[in-house]
């Protein structure tokens, strides 16, 4: 895994309604990984650019925009990593933008690897890049991705996945997990570990999306004892989780605990 003098070119593709957290997170993690390499006496690791379909400033909403972007449809340079970012409008707007989808498909043809974060998977699927591939996306839209693109093998519990040169990640912050995996693949575990330390995140997050989605999909509870029991269950799946044991943990009788839990959670 040798360093490349000019840096590996990373093209981060955004669209109106893109998740700023994902876009800037992916950009910044690659940039800082490159900076860490320079600090260690190496040449720059990555050369990161943001792209939109036509090169117009990227509309981030509420009056914010990002200039200095690349026009994806006219870009002809080689790409090492093409990263397509998701967002609230990715499924219903960006994935139906024929010009953007054609530009992504063309750019992917000269990319060493293609990446999607969160609902960015819908754009890759629309471009025909995910046929017969294993991919993941945000748990809340995984079923829709599978239904709309039946030739795509969607794995809703994965934080990130690699299938050949296609890499995909789950929702928002899972993009950070994916970038760490990409950096480790390119330059080894030491660089990835240092990057994780800089961002104060797991190098490898334990578990899958289910540990988060099940809790997030449940209605919020008002009573502290019930909330604490739920948190205990998620954190200790191998413990004694019988109703009697959980009632004792909440300092309630089994009957009272059962009644409160059913009233709060609905089951």
How would you explain this protein's 3D organization?
The protein has 267 residues and is an alpha/beta fold. The chain contains 10 helices and 11 strands. Helix 5 packs antiparallel against helix 6 and helix 9 crosses helix 10.
| Shape descriptor | globular
Structural category is alpha/beta
Mean residue pLDDT:
88
Strand order of the largest sheet: 5-2-1-6-7-11-10
Report Rg. 21 Å
Helix content: 40-55%
- How far apart the termini lie comes to 53 Å
Low-confidence stretches: 1-5
Determine the number of helices (DSSP H or I, runs of at least 4 residues): 10
- Estimate what percentage of residues fall within beta strands: 15-25%
Largest sheet: 7 strands, mixed
How many DSSP-defined strands? 11
Could you spell the SSE succession in H and E letters?
EHEEEEEHEHEHEEEHHHHHH
Gist?
This protein is α/β, with parallel strands linked by helices and 267 residues long. The chain is 40% helix and 18% strand.
Structure keywords:
11 strands; globular; 267 residues; two-stranded antiparallel ribbon; disordered N terminus; 7-stranded mixed sheet; alpha/beta
Please outline the helices and strands.
Layout: E1 8-13, H1 20-39, E2 46-52, E3 58-61, E4 64-66, E5 70-71, E6 79-84, H2 98-108, E7 111-117, H3 121-126, E8 134-135, H4 142-148, E9 153-154, E10 160-163, E11 166-169, H5 174-187, H6 189-199, H7 210-217, H8 224-235, H9 243-249, H10 254-265
Parallel strand pairs: 1-2, 1-6, 2-5, 6-7, 7-11, 8-9
Antiparallel strand pairs: 3-4, 10-11
Helix pairs in contact: 1-5, 1-6, 5-6, 9-10
